[in-house]
Model the fold of this input.
Amino acid sequence: MSTRPPVVVLPPASDGGRQVTIRGEPTGTAYNLFDVMDLVHRAGLPGKDRAVDDPELIEWRGGGPYDWNAPEPPDTPDE
Done:
């Protein structure tokens, strides 16, 4: 039986911040990996160094733990 990880980190927004939810509740915006781990620790979850790569703890959407820049908008031709 598969269970969802308690922490979900959403894709980067235009400012590079990523919304973080823990146990389905919004907990804040992370601007780097340290912010995510701070939120994890505050929630009382284990946060060892390898936790960032642990799919049972954190689900990374729209990029992994080292992706913090918002995607570049596609080039559009000048009108």
Summary: The chain is about 15% helix and 20% strand. Helices lie at 33-42. The radius of gyration is 14 Å. The first strand starts at residue 7 and ends at 9.
